[in-house]
Write a structure and sequence with these properties.
The complex is a heterodimer of chains A (about 300) and B (about 325). Chain A has about 300 residues and is mostly helical. Chain A is about 70% helix and about 0% strand. The chains are: A mainly alpha (about 300), B mainly alpha (about 325).
């Protein structure tokens, strides 16, 4: 398309820029975005930010409550556990494992899943049908079960748990992206592109990809939420992060026997998971609404 | 109809075939990794067929722990998992469908935002954590609801169907209805925890479906004819908004099951989740392929059943009868 750059005010806003300008007007979503940025920065630089080392024990300050409760100390804002380790530092490191792992899984699964999903939707015949049946079979295995199977073979460790979760979430993502692309394929502008003789890659890049933005955000959001919950669940069951690692789910599991002495130790990691998921959901919801409004 | 049925069953067979291959692969890998049984030198294809024969003759081997047949044990445990899922589903449908319909009808109002906030909170709460917090409840509120196990140990219930809610009704001559109520009391808290997630899902699906229906042309026509809003909603919109939720929810079945398995472990219920978890912890790895076959088998059968029911009850879906023609 020819754009006359001589007159700046006539320049057409690009769709992404337009969506961004709508997104900026949604204050809750923007706040959520900054909180996500904060959380990611925290998880990246946790070792430098926290006041104490997460493994530093202090026999004089065991099982301190948070500082706003009687007997708490401002030195340990969220209290300490049964070995005198600072809860806040452990939480920050826990977010590093949980959030960082979930981001890695989302990246890995979305790239591979989108490629396979697009390949399945754009090809017909034997290849697509084989993939379809394989997906049907894999979809019938609950993700917890497939994670258990993989961990039985490769042994429990944090990295294996990430692999297992990625592999168990992959079929769901492929199916969801396949459905989104399939719906798009029946639309008239895609048929017009096909009649123009567009190659498959061009069809995908210019015809389909800009139009499946909204469903993609929904599935990515779902993928990320499930990834966090599952990392925490496997950590909780003892199949994920192993002891010196302070993953949020395994923090909950390790502090289970202290639940009557100091319920804070179980409550805070759960709240951290909860807040992370809710913030991401609010952000994704805002983004989705901005995309819908931008398309209309 | 017949060609549709054959096509569905054909799909079922192929998927089941792939799943048995997976189960076989897991079984053999366990054999080689952990050397639980002496390895027979034989062709893998022959081994696969003998494994398939074992599946058909309902014999998946015996547990290394208690020498019980794996399939029967697994099925009994799975029945109690299903019971939990079913009660939770019932519970959450009663709460979530009206909420979802309200949110869809009054879209973008304060009511809608309030309902959707509740739904997002339900989705974001990690299930096992809510479970742990619920286990704490008796220490806060006193012993109102039990939080451990399937039943009180004083009742001796013989296994007839595996569904304890039904089995307890068979022993009424002995215990009266007390066993039944005991089972119900044991189910309430786990089912409530599981329904957090389910409510969030169902509210979301119902709202979406209701919005789509209210935007469609036939509802606009009904408005143009001058029908009252209540009549439109109850007579036209509900009929068309509710059926599409079922296949959507079916896609979530494996997620629901995996949450149910987690909840069982937290509440120490005797379900398939606890069974697999304990078997793996103690090194009885042969429970794994058996458990996988039971769970996936159920999900497959259930999916096909749902699809056939959908074709029978929903006219829109009936189009797929003639998909290939």
């Amino acid at each position: 398309m020819l754009i006359n750059n001589g007159f700046n005010e006539d320049k057409i806003q690009s769709p992404l820029r337009y969506i961004w300008s709508i997104f900026k007007s949604k204050s809750i979503a923007v706040v959520a975005m900054w909180v996500i940025v904060f959380l990611v920065l925290v998880s990246l630089f946790a070792s430098w930010l926290v006041p104490h080392s997460p493994l530093l024990q202090d026999p004089n300050k065991m099982l301190l409550p948070p500082y706003w409760v009687d007997g708490g100390s401002i030195d340990h804002v969220l209290g300490t556990d049964d070995l005198g380790r600072d809860t806040l530092s452990r939480l920050f490191h826990g977010i590093q494992y949980t959030l960082g792992g979930a981001l890695l899984i989302t990246l890995f699964v979305s790239i591979i899943g989108m490629t396979i999903g697009a390949g399945a939707a754009l090809t017909k015949g034997l290849k697509a049908s084989v993939l379809h049946h394989l997906l049907d079979a894999l979809l019938a295995i609950p993700s917890l079960l497939s994670a258990l199977i993989l961990i039985t073979f490769f042994g429990p460790s944090y990295i294996n748990c990430l692999f297992a979760i990625a592999l168990s979430l992959l079929p769901q993502f492929i199916r969801a992206s396949y459905l989104a692309i399939e719906q798009e394929l029946n639309k008239q502008y895609i048929v017009a592109l096909q009649l123009d003789g567009a190659a498959k890659t061009r069809l995908f890049k210019y015809g389909i990809l800009p139009n499946i933005l909204e469903p993609t955000i929904t599935i990515l959001n779902r993928l990320f939420t499930m990834a966090i919950i599952e990392i925490a669940t496997l950590g909780f069951l003892g199949f994920g992060a192993q002891l010196p690692q302070t993953e949020l789910g395994s923090l909950i599991a390790n502090n289970m026997e202290l639940i009557y002495l100091s319920p804070w130790l179980v409550a805070f990691p759960g709240l951290a998971i909860f807040i992370t998921i809710i913030i991401v959901n609010v952000f994704a919801e805002g983004l989705r609404h901005a995309v819908i409004e931008g398309e209309e | 109809m017949l060609s549709f049925l054959i096509r569905r069953l054909n799909l079922l067979l192929i998927t089941a075939f792939i799943l048995t291959i997976l189960a076989f692969a897991i079984d053999r890998t366990i054999l080689i990794h952990h050397q639980t049984q002496p390895i027979v030198q034989q062709d893998y294809i022959l081994q696969y067929f003998s494994y398939l024969w074992q599946i058909f003759s309902a014999d998946l081997g015996h547990s290394a722990l208690d020498q019980q047949p794996l399939l029967q044990r697994g099925l009994t445990f799975f029945a109690s998992t299903l019971e939990l899922c079913f009660v939770a589903l019932l519970f959450s449908c009663i709460i979530a469908i009206p909420l979802g319909l309200l949110a869809g009808l009054f879209r973008n109002t304060k009511l809608d935002y309030a309902i959707m906030t509740v739904a997002i909170i339900g989705l974001a709460l990690p299930v096992f954590w809510v479970g742990v917090m619920a286990v704490l409840l008796p220490s806060v509120w006193g012993d109102i609801l039990p939080v451990d196990g399937n039943m009180s140990l004083v009742y001796d219930i013989p296994v007839v169907t595996g569904f304890l809610l039904i089995d307890t009704l068979f022993v009424t001559p002995q215990y009266g209805l007390f066993a039944f109520f005991d089972r119900v009391a044991h189910l309430i808290l786990p089912a409530a925890v599981l329904s957090f997630f389910l409510i969030a899902e169902i509210v979301r699906l119902t709202r979406h479906s209701m919005t789509m229906v209210m935007r469609s042309n036939y509802i606009q026509t009904a408005y143009a004819k001058g029908f009252s809003r209540t009549k439109i909603v109850f007579k036209h919109a509900l009929n068309n908004a509710l059926p599409p939720i079922i296949p959507q929810l079916r896609l979530q079945l494996s997620t629901i099951l995996s949450f149910a398995m987690t909840i069982e472990i937290v509440f120490n219920l005797n379900g398939i989740g606890t069974w697999l978890f304990n078997s793996l912890k103690t090194g009885d790895y042969h429970a794994l392929p058996a458990g996988m076959l039971i769970i996936t088998g159920f999900i497959l059968m259930f999916s096909i059943a749902i699809e056939i029911t959908m074709v029978i009850i929903s006219p829109i879906r009936r189009g797929s009868l003639y998909a290939d023609k």
